[in-house]
Specification:
Elements (H helix, E strand, L loop, with lengths): L5 E6 L7 H11 L5 E6 L5 H11 L3 E4 L13 E2 L1 H6 L4 E4 L5 E4 L2 H13 L7 E5 L3 H12 L4 E6 L2 H17 L5 E6 L3 H4 L5 E4 L24 E4 L8 H8 L3 E3 L1 H17 L5 H13 L3
Helix pairs in contact: 1-10, 4-5, 4-9, 5-6, 9-10
The chain binds 2'-monophosphoadenosine-5'-diphosphate (ATR).
2'-monophosphoadenosine-5'-diphosphate binds next to helix 5.
């Protein structure tokens, strides 16, 4: 019998998380006797929870809202991309007892976008709606894979400006020449015609507030891809409206599955059973999450 290891997710709140069902199904699919638990960790207890990982020998955890940035200070090592993004969503207890942080959100997004839409990133002009942690991870990976024009629209303008400075630094550090711009949140609807990838990285449209959209897509190029990181509901109103206007759409569920698959590969060293992971998450979402 293979060794049993304990994994989990630390978040607050955590009860709605679909990560346990997804990872436990993946372990079972590969005949691994590991277990993945949902740990509800309040911000005040984050440091103690990370120390407990070491002391209890918890082999790996995912990190979710609101801990992705604050957790960095408690880790022994951070992978380069996670450092550039400034957020960690996966922690591994290494054999030498040190904790290393990774970020699989941006990579998961990128892998799912390419797999689902066959997008040509060097030809892509992207509009990112939102300037939080998710937006940053996505932007870094779009740049890493060839996208050279990114515009950010955020409700709070100065957060968009800060993100654009960080992205320019990332490009300079990697010898990349590109264009990062910011526009007013209110301008984004009328500007949408200038972009061939539009990504909602905000929680707008997420259950139970499913009747709202981040922007009105008044004008779209026929080959525009519209992408939403919200995955509950699977088809947000934003995506439904984009589809009606003839855009190709990319659902948020895929980012969730692929970030989980990459974390699973860090956890186990095995290729993740992506189809099985998607199947159980879809089943659970159909039952109402
Ligand atoms: P995450 O790590 O999931 O990206 P975050 O860092 O809290 O979460 O970022 C949330 C993003 O959604 C922010 O860009 C936020 O805009 P502000 O910077 O103005 O707060 C955006 N957002 C959240 N709710 C929003 C709303 N109702 N309207 C517009 N933007 C919203």
């Amino acid at each position: 019998m293979t060794e049993s290891k304990l994994f989990g997710i630390i978040a607050h709140p955590v009860h709605h998380s679909l990560s346990p069902v997804m990872h436990n199904a993946a372990f079972a699919e590969l005949g691994l006797h590991h277990y993945y638990h949902a740990f509800d960790v309040q911000p005040l207890h984050l440091k103690a929870a990370i120390e407990a990982m070491k002391n209890l020998g918890i082999a790996g955890v995912n990190v979710s809202i609101p801990h992705k940035e604050k957790v960095i200070q408690y880790l022994d090592e951070i992978d380069d991309e996670a450092k550039a993004i400034g957020a960690v969503n996966t922690i591994l207890l290494q054999e030498d007892g040190r904790l290393k942080g990774y970020n699989t959100d941006g990579a998961g997004y990128l892998q799912s976008l390419v797999a689902e839409t066959e997008i040509n990133l060097p030809q892509t002009k992207a509009l990112l709606l939102g300037a939080g942690g998710a937006s940053k991870g996505i932007a870094v990976y779009l740049i890493k894979h060839g996208c050279r024009e990114i515009t950010i629209a955020n409700r709070t303008r100065n957060k968009a400006e800060e993100l654009s400075i960080q992205l320019e630094e990332y490009m300079n550090d990697h010898g990349i020449v590109g264009k990062i711009a910011c526009i007013e949140w209110k301008e984004a609807s009328s500007s949408s015609i200038n972009f061939n990838l539009i990504v909602n990285t905000t929680p707008i449209g997420m259950w139970p507030n499913i009747e709202i959209v981040p922007i009105h897509l008044d004008h779209l190029e026929s080959n525009t891809i519209v992408s939403d990181i919200v995955y509950n509901p699977l088809q947000t109103l934003f995506l439904a409206q984009a589809e009606q206007k003839g855009a190709r759409i990319h659902q948020g569920l895929e980012m969730f599955i692929y970030q989980g698959a990459l974390a699973f590969e860090y956890f186990t060293g095995e290729k993740a059973p992506v189809d099985r992971m998607r199947e159980v998450v879809l089943e659970r979402l159909k039952q109402g999450g």
